[in-house]
Amino acid sequence: MPLDEAGAIAAAEHLLGVQDQERFQLDVLRRYATGKQALPLVIPADAPREVREMARISRINLISIVINSLVESLFVDNLRVTVDDAAEGEPSTPEQVTAPIWDTWQANRLDRGQSGLYRAVFQYGYAYMVITAGRPLPVIRPMSPRRMTALYADDSDWPELALERRSKRNRFRLYDATQVYELGYDPDKKRFGLLAEPSAHGSPYCPVVRYRDVEDLDVDDEPVPHVAQSFGARGDNMVDMVAGQVAPLMTLQDQSDVTTFALKSAEWYSAFRQRWVVGWTPANPSDKVKSAASQLWTFDNDPEEVKLGEFSQTMLDGYLASRKDTARFAATLSQTPVHELIGDLVNLSAEALAAAEAGRDRKVDERKTGLGESHEQLAQAAGLLQGVEVPDDLEVVWRDTSARAFGAIVDGLGKLAAQLQIPPEALWERIPGATLQDVRRWKTLRAEGDSMDALTGLLDRQAAPPEPAPPGGGIVLPPERRARA
Question: What's the pTM?
Fold first, then answer.
């Protein structure tokens, strides 16, 4: 049942309060994901300028490498569906079923937009897709949870209400099961107001599809935090969120930042041999500079009263080893290949590289399953808006990005076709890097080639001279009978 103006305003105010509470933690995750987290707590607020500059450049972002490793492994290339005996007037081939949905995907430029969706999912643990009716095709937009808040009840697939913060300042959009409400927000009065009459979005449910990093049945029922909270740098980054790739790595990221800061401080202050002089003071700054640069000091007056010495230099090996171990812990915790975090990759074969990335591949396969289900939910919503019945067995086809030799994959596909009698056309979509457009073009060229071969054979038979009639006339026997006669 559509909301009236008062109901829409009340719902928007409630969801805005939830969004403001979530926004604090989501902003912390965003800063860690982009390498803009607060400086380490060990740095005093009144530290010298060079110290604060060293702290700034000490933020080597490990988390972004983990996120990019997952995002770059996920790309939807195709849709797959099984078509049984179709009734008259219904689509009879898989391409006829998937073509309208794939056209909607392409029209909304989701080849590009899907990467932003996955990046938000891994940063915050979840993200959304909004799908509404459009002309000529439905409109689909990826949404970060920093800009959208959805309220779920018993149905975990479709929310009851969703509030979207628009790009324009103080503009919002509220979705319910039937309508879209355009709202404006007055920050001084802290009150919403309708900007236009509500419009139908075309779906029988709130048109928001949620995408999750992992399926956690207890994510909405976390235990009450203990006294020992999880604090980030400077103590103001408390984050209770457990979903996503950022939150579990924040502690290791802080450790890496502190270790790198200590490394840079040692390099700046004590990595070189510092000399000292007792009993002599330079007359002017230029003499001090000359003495600092000199490798041999000489004094004419009272040499017995002047003492020279030096401090030993600080060894940096311990700092470097500690930082590398932190990166290894982050790789283990996130199932990211170690060589992607620390760069230790020397002359590895394709098989060794595949073994090194096996853990990440298993993690990616799990994400493909969960995100693929959300994509299929989105496809069914798009089909409903287009008047196309999308079967339940529709599934997305992910691009193969694993570290396997291309020749080995093609050789394996060839054996499947030759030894198991699988039609080659059914294996084309499994070729690494082959898109849906590539497969369609190959099938078209194959069909054109078959048609040309048939036409050429027909013309050759028509142009061939007729076989001579048997002597004396009579019945013309088949060639094999003719030979016996």
Answer: 0.76
